[in-house]
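re: ur question from yesterday

yeah so i grabbed the chain u mentioned. its 428 aa long if i counted rite. heres the sequnce exactly as i have it in my notes:
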Amino acid sequence: MAFLALGINHKTASVDVRERVAFTPEQLVEALQQLCRLTDSREAAILSTCNRSELYLEQDQLGAEAVLKWLAEYHDLNYEELRACAYIHEDDAAVRHMMRVASGLDSLVLGEPQILGQMKSAYAVAREAGTVGPLLGRLFQATFNSAKQVRTDTAIGENPVSVAFAAVSLAKQIFSDLQRSQALLIGAGETITLVARHLHDLGVKRIVVANRTLERASTLAEQFGAHAVLLSDIPQELVHSDIVISSTASQLPILGKGAVESALKLRKHKPIFMVDIAVPRDIEPEVGELDDVYLYTVDDLHEVVAENLKSRQGAAQAAEELVSIGAEDFMVRLRELAAVDVLKAYRQQGERLRDEELQKALRMMANGSNPQDVLVQLARGLTNKLLHAPSVQLKKLSAEGRLDALAMAQELFALGEGSSDSSADKKL
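ran it thru and got these structure tokens back, copy pasting raw so excuse formatting
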């Protein structure tokens, strides 16, 4: 029984690497099943977001390198390149890492609330794939409880600052008056919903939501008085857009250099501010080469969130302490569970010996034996049988010089309780 957490994130790998290691929602079930089939992983879950791709595993014997090789092969990556930016956490460290991630302590934006929901989704997908068993399942539940406690007992979740907020804050720095600006939002997921809310609260003149399905775009647009269009309408809307923020799950770029170049000509080279939050990227990197485009990726938001980090350091310290306690408590409970099978077998053995001696006593009573003699025989027989196997093993261990085992036996059987050290020594 061993836990393993490994992967890459915004601190160890560039967006160029992260987008190549990212899993699509459609890939996850098959990838999880393949991971368990081709490695020594008995249980597995995958968390894949714009900032990280992580694998959470339960193995009999830890084998991180084999898992990393599988990950590289799955995404057709060079193993050495992946290994150079990957991190590996084992057992207690793996448990603590998962709890830190779920609590937002390992996020680009410290304390971001979205990551907990993303981890819950990872757990749900792993259950769907049939790759979560009792051990990893317990770890996920402990992780969720730890994250909930961090949110409840610390100030880390107050006035939550998300990547979406950071993107809008960057737009505020560039545009002195957002109320005169028009915004094009590409996607209709949680991140774009947050972006729309922030832009709406700031009084942005016009907001357009573009999505693969018009129904989902309309549902989002209605909340903020925005307009809904299809992805195919982006070129026309781009002409009127001062702000473009994109976050989809597309595996291919949605917005190319040619389309932006054409829009700039019609805008008479009026600048466009763009933020590509998606991983893999929605906007071709070459778009950033255009003179009148200011293109930022999720990695460019570090400066924006620096103040967030400063303001939350006190809460972060308290959260780290709670996570450490949560991780330690989980490992203690897990080690206790490891004894359950042994205790069950020991109890079954004791009950079997009890039943054998009881049946023997009942037969003696039926044959007319003296009840007092029967009880004495029952007590003697049961005691001898219960002590036989431990006595044999202790003599064997003693002959082998295993004094540690003898000391453990004394503690296990509480031989020193209620007697002096000298009397205990005599008994041994």
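noticed a couple things. The domain at 2-160 is CATH 3.30.460.30 (Beta Polymerase; domain 2). also The chain has a mean pLDDT of 90.
anyway ttyl
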